[in-house]
Structures are given as C-alpha cells and as structure tokens.
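A favour between colleagues. Tell me how you read the following sequence-structure pair.

===
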Amino acid sequence: MEWVEVPGGTCAFGDDARPVEVGALLWTRAPVTYAQLGCARSGVDGLRPVTGISHAQAILVARALGGRLPTSAEWEWMAGGPQRRRWPWGDQEWCPELANLRDSGLDATSPVDAHPAGATPEGLLDVAGNVWEWTLRATMGNGVTLRGGSYASLPLYARTTFRNAAPAEVASPGIGFRVVRQP
C-alpha cells in the first residue's frame, strides 16, 4: 500500500465555499485495488479498483488496512487543494489522457495507474474518473456522498467540487474507495 501525505489547511467546501478545517492525512495513492487486498477476480486485472462493495464493506476494508474512509470535505481538499482547482490536475479541461470518463472510449474500469497525467500535484491517481469513491458523509434516506466520477460519468461529474450520492447498501461496478489515516 503506497501512502501519500496531503498537508492540512482550510477547505473552501462546496458550492458556498464554507470554510472547513482539514488536518494533514496520508491517502492511498489510488483507489484500493484487488492486488492490494491480495485477491483477484477472474478476468480482472489486479491493478483495477475494488468495486462491487457496499459502504459498510468499504468501511470494514479501510479499517483492516489501518485507516478509514475520508470525509467529503477531506476528499474535496485533497482533490482541489488550497487553489480550489477545478480538476485534480488543475484547470485544464478534461481529455481522455487525464481520466477514465464516459467519453474516453472505455466502458469499464481501467488500471489505477493508466492516467498519470491526471494526477494531483501530490501524485494521487484516479481522483477523477474510473470509480466514484465512497466517503463518510451520510445524506438523507440512508445515502452516502460519492466523489470523483466513474468511467460512466460525464466529465462535469468528475470536477473537484461535484458531489453525488448513492444508497449505502449499493454495491456497484462504478463505486470504489480510497483510504486515509493520520500521518
């Protein structure tokens, strides 16, 4: 498991840019993969993100890896930084070399290292596209906030401030997770 430290600061969170203090955290460099869990599914490359697990299952796996899921504000801070970048890589508009999104020509997840040009300045991969990422933030009706967009998402949904939600019990091929822990 490769961990990347993202310094803390004040996140201008959400559309209303509400100030939220975020501490320094270690993040998994990419969404958790099958290889990192020591398992592989038939026909699935080990470098593809783990998908098809519910929010509760993602929480349990994150704990087993020594961390937890990020809050939505922590995720937004990691993705946009103090500059409030529009995209994890900066303000350049999306193109297929930067992230696995709907118009990239792929109809499934890709290996988490397939889009290095789309990394954050700290080197985190697949923050935009490939899979939505579970967070700790609950929504009304037993939902949970998702961040980052997936291979089936329009580019708009992969922007650093875009929030989506899904029922906590959903186990989708388009939802994965990354883990955070204290430095």
About this structure: The radius of gyration is 15 Å. The chain has two helices and nine strands.
